[in-house]
Every structure is written in structure tokens, then in C-alpha cells.
Amino acid sequence: MHNQLCSGMNQSCLFIFQTNAELLENFCKSHQVSSVPTIMLFKCNTLLKAVVGFKPADITTMVESYAGADPSRANGAPVEQKDLNERLKSLIHKKEVMLFMKGSPAEPRCGFSRTITGILNDHKIDYGYFDILSDEEVRQGLKTYSNWPTYPQLYHKGELLGGLDIVKEMQESGELKDLPKVD
């Protein structure tokens, strides 16, 4: 996978290292590495982003976002607010219903995320998700973008519906039936 990631990129700024997690036990504890593989992107000892598990598409997106064609991003420069807002808008519109949560529907990493995915799955809602723990920029930026301070956050057609409490209210009122269903 290393060769595929590096082809066509500005490799002067990209260094890829691989190690055995058992050899770096203190590092893994201090960076809350709970499973392998965990792919982490650092700049000057600062964690920029992490992908937990073998998710080639997510890993590729992560690497391309920091080492792709845009040289200002390749060297870890901060993202302009306009660029971040465009990225957030793109993520929010990735599917008709998008859930921003901690973890994944298969492995939620907090009780609120577990509960909301349970509700959506019980109602057979067709939704995409984004793990906010994998990208601190998105995690913090979306709070400001949507003026909603907590997670999970559920969007429909690019509009914020709300968090778990709102989804529970929608469940009680029958409004969830209006969301697209899995075929």
C-alpha cells in the first residue's frame, strides 16, 4: 500500500514508518491506540489525524489531504477556514443522511453513538457516517459550522437534524419514517 500512496505525491514531505505496537507500548498507551492497525499522521510530534483499522480508502484520503497536490497542506500547514467549511459541507452531503459519531456503526466508541446507531438501524435508515475521532479538524470544525457543541450529529440533505435527544423525539413522533430506508 505504501507504493500506491506515494505515487504521484510530493514525497519530499512524506515519510512512512511501520513498527510493531508491542515494541512501543508506552507510545500506544499515550496515544490511546486500542487496536491494530492504527495509522497515525504526525507533524512535529503533533497528531494530525488517525485511522483505526485497515481502511484503505480512509487511509488514502488522510494521506492525500496532507501530502497531496496542495503544497501548503503537504507540509502540514493549517487549513484555511474556507477550505475547512468546504470540506465539512462535502462530508455532510456525502449521503442523504449522514451521522457524525464517535467510532463506527459496527464499533461505536461511546454510549450516545451506540444508541443513535441502534435507533437508525432499528428503523432501517440508509445513512453514511463519519468517525469524528479520526479527524480532530472535522471534530472541532463541525461544532462551529453547525453551531451544535456535542456528538453525535445527524444530518439530512445537508441540514442538521440534531443529536441523540432530537433523534429520540423524532422516533417518538414518527418522523424517522420520512428518512430514506435501506433497500
From TrEMBL:
Residues 97-160 form the Glutaredoxin domain. It comes from the Eukaryota. It holds the Pfam family Glutaredoxin. InterPro entries: Glutaredoxin (IPR002109), GRX_PICOT-like (IPR033658), Monothiol_GRX-rel (IPR004480), Thioredoxin-like_sf (IPR036249). Keywords: Iron, Iron-sulfur, Metal-binding. GO terms for molecular function: iron-sulfur cluster binding; metal ion binding. PANTHER family: GLUTAREDOXIN FAMILY MEMBER, GLUTAREDOXIN-3. This is Glutaredoxin 3.
